[in-house]
Amino acid sequence: MPRFAINVSTLFTEYPLIERFAKAANAGFSHVEIQFPYELNAPCIKEQLEKHSIKAILMNIPAGDWSAGDRGIACDPARVSEFRNGVHTCAKYAQILEIKQVNCLSGKLPANVSAKTAESTLIENLRYAESYLQRFGIKLVIEPINTVDIPEFFLHSTQQAVDIIKACGADSSIRVQSDIYHMQMMGENLIKTITFHQQWIAHIQVADAPGRHEPGTGNIAFNDLFTAIDQMNYEGFVSFEYFPEHTTEIGLSHLAQWHLQ
After folding, report:
1. Active-site option among 33, 119, 143, 214
2. Does residue 245 have an active-site annotation?
3. What domains are there in the chain, each with its CATH number?
4. Predicted TM-score (pTM) above 0.90
């Protein structure tokens, strides 16, 4: 089985964020990811991680005003300064939390901005973020998001992500965060795609589809998927990032067949 982690931004939401690290540890996880930790002071999070012997492995660069509908701003030419300030904030948190990998959300195609302009803006912002984060030993990943749930999301396929990384330069260390749920919603062949692009994949997230609930509630054959991941030259984590169908505890009881092996 792959190495599993848990996303405390989508799981254990019955509890305040500060309490979810203890819940993750009690559920048998030693590694967590946090989408946006910025509501808490980084030292407070670090205290919880150390108290419960947990390591944080991933977080997101600030993605704009989430409550106002932002889902990332990296492709918006009018918000370059805001994006780069967010990279600086992210780096500060990542250093304190000892997180070595962060994710960048491209965001939705802005109104009255061409796809070509959005792409060039994204590439320049990624080059900046990669260079800045490298100073602190932090790697950058980018995540395609399905356009069913988020219409107009700019980065929406694995191949597009790989092409953009290549456009960032032959020496770029940027990699893909492959979210199995989003891939399935976009009609990608899961095993074929991750196997073909395995050299570009540095992080994997899983949820079933449709519904984005825990594995086993939808149409994805996770036994086959996890076997394929085991057969790849993949050294990263597979993180459970889903919205529980019922409670987090009920959902996790169904995942024990995988993560407790």
Report:
1. 143
2. no
3. 3-15+26-245 (3.20.20.150)
4. yes
